Amino acid sequence: MTNLAGGKGANLGELVSFGIRVPPGFVITSKAYSFFLSYNNLHDRINDILNEDIPSSDASNKIKELIISSPIPKSLEETILSSYDDLASKIGKQILVAVRSSATAEDLENASFAGQQDTYLNVNRSELIQKVKMVWASLFNERAIEYRKSKGIDSTKVEIAVVVQKMVNSRSAGVMFTLHPGNGDRNFIVIESSWGLGESVVGGLVTPDEIVIEKSSLKIVEKKLSHKNLKFIYDSSAKSNKEIDISNSPEADQFSISDEEAIELAKFALKIEEHYGIPMDIEWAIDSDLKFPDDVFIVQARAETYWSSKKKVPQRSEGIEVAERKVLVKGLAASPGIASGVAKIILSSKESGRFKRGDILVTKMTDPDWVPLMKIASAIVTDEGGITSHAAIVSRELGIPAIVGTNEATKVIKDGEEITVDATRGIVYQGKIVEEEKIEEQKGSTGLSRDMVLSLYPVTATKIYMNLGQPDVIDKYLDLPFDGIGLMRIEFIVSEWIKRHPLYLIKIGKPEEFVDKLAEGVAKVATAIYPRPVVVRFSDFKTNEYRRLEGGEEYEPEERNPMLGWRGVSRYISPQYEPAFRLEVRAIRKAREEMGLKNVWVMFPFVRTESELKRAIHIMEDEGLRRTQDFKTWIMAEVPSVIILAERFARIVDGFSIGSNDLAQLTLGVDRDSEILGRMGYYDERDPAVLRSMKNLITAAHKYGATVSICGQAPSIYPEVAEYLVRSGIDSISVNPDAVISTRRSVASIEQKIMLEKLRK
Ligand code: PEP
Ligand code: MG
């Protein structure tokens, strides 16, 4: 049964083990996976790809494609489908299921991989087999491959099971707490309920009905009926959740849960609290496909933090007030968040008896034996390890703040002393500087956790990135389902925060002002979305724009054609601007090294020639920033020369990002700011010449293992460009915030279409 515990945070297996009802389903064991591999002779072919000298991202893509395109043995297919049919026949109709990965026991360590937690929701019978293969393929996500490589784990020996579970056809749903959220009284269970899917209650979009039940007698002591103005349901034709206005329908003012259903839920709540030993926050649903009591399900249980997080607490990205605090140690911010508690120096997992729930674990390094201890820790601090170490990965999965690689935490921190771990900044302070509340996982305006947000959107193989310029607005967009920032323009930080020309700052002896503010702006975004990458583009002001900065006139000539003038890389290597470019590089280095934000990458704009790029990279290296596995250097593909000679450029960079704004301008010879040509329809990124250029770039880049993204406007405004690029094999698409959701949806449907087309062939 423990195989049920597939989904991150969804401790379903554990719930089942002590008698909690969860949505019905079945497990496709790891034996099925190995049978599939041997049937298609995939062990060797996967090994061959893994042994090729190509980046993990390419190996990942190749292996996934291999798995997804290989046929599933007929007998296996029949077994899976008949298990599905059994499930459906018990329920008496066609059902939709969730298909989740579930790491096998032998693969416990890998279970903590984000990469292995692929989940597909609302899958129907005809899609089931394909989705199972996609979950299998997720065993070869890029990060999983890299992790196993670094640990010397043989990828072909790792196995995976798949959990298939009925999607709840949610008549009513909500949350329940094993304490009274109003006054913290632990004698009561409080149920909040509304119609349809649980999102409306969890996201605070309706005022739910409320039922209060006394624990000792299991009697209802209070009932509050609310006017419920909306509900979410799953719309199978649109394949997405849909909001329905019910404010004028009778159900708006009817109780969304019956007394007997509430008591059935309360019984589960008691068991769950007893098992975990702390107040719990539980999500539940009632399935209209089934009859009472089989229709009452628990879908998620976690420690109660919902109400605490509603109180005024510091935002994670703001960090905490640090003045007057004694810093004990610093390290890498491996899993963001803040927590205070009693430090316990535990050097062997066998000493775990001294460790109490809520203590802070301070140790040298963790391994899989430590996981039970880590689960009850409020934060983790280690001497050793990096951002992808065991402690870091597991903490992120568990949502516990963690700082790794401090070198000396076990020596400096005293056993039993109270400390505060600010894992957003990577600093451990003496004493307690946050209230009881633990800061929750990254939250945006709706208050949903990131996992919950992501579960509302389809998973795509093509990464969906977001473009961002102003660091301050990141908080507003944290709820959007993006995989990173594909273009961070720094021009906003320079013009709005720094305001002065970098060469002028150097002249007046204040170069650090430039470095510090730029690093701060970058860090704000990188911290907020950690560990997803932020591709920071070095400055791309034109001379007329630089002139507007304070002190700029002294350094910036008046050019006849600034758009084609002294911009991008040509600046960085010029003797006049080079010192300022070095400040830009130092800011990046500061964010990465002093602030521990290894998710900061860089991108060179307006690259024209290979030789200028080599010189600029040389300057960057001279400032101490070298390309590594976790420090990617991208260039913008904006000038046609980069595309014509893409194979040469691909050998010296990690990736390209298509700047379709400039690329269209320069391919078609059309000034992007010309109103007259614009009105006449000349400026159009969908022009076949521009599209062909993009496709050629993808083909050439992939030959040498470089990735391709796009950060120009085109895919944000033309979904057909996104489709063309997905079909051409682009690795990621970076769009404006308002286009993130629609792009994710359309890319998912294009990817499915491509797979279906391949299957039909
Ligand atoms: C582009 O050229 O497409 C691009 C993203 O850069 P910018 O618009 O800043 O020139
Ligand atoms: Mg550009």
From TrEMBL:
EC number: 2.7.9.2
UniProt-listed InterPro entries: ATP_grasp_subdomain_1, PEP-util_enz_mobile_dom, PEP_synth, PEP_util_AS, PEP_util_C, PEP_util_CS, Phosphohistidine_dom_sf, PPDK_AMP/ATP-bd
This protein's UniProt keywords: ATP-binding, Kinase, Magnesium, Metal-binding, Nucleotide-binding, Pyruvate, Transferase
Cofactor entry: Mg(2+)
Enzyme class at the top of the EC tree: transferase
UniProt-listed Pfam families: PEP-utilizers, PEP-utilizers_C, PPDK_N
Pathway(s) the chain acts in: Carbohydrate biosynthesis; gluconeogenesis
Alphabetical list of SUPFAM superfamilies matching this protein: Glutathione synthetase ATP-binding domain-like (SSF56059), Phosphoenolpyruvate/pyruvate domain (SSF51621), Phosphohistidine domain (SSF52009)
Substrates-to-products reaction catalysed: pyruvate + ATP + H2O = phosphoenolpyruvate + AMP + phosphate + 2 H(+)
GO MF entries: ATP binding; metal ion binding; pyruvate, water dikinase activity
Ranges for domain PEP-utilising enzyme C-terminal: 449-751
Domain PEP-utilising enzyme mobile: 355-426
Tree of life domain: Archaea
Signal peptide (residue range): none
Record field: transmembrane: none
GO biological process: gluconeogenesis
Function: Catalyzes the phosphorylation of pyruvate to phosphoenolpyruvate.
Similarity comment: family membership: Belongs to the PEP-utilizing enzyme family.
Protein name according to UniProt: Phosphoenolpyruvate synthase
Organism expressing this protein natively: Candidatus Acidianus copahuensis
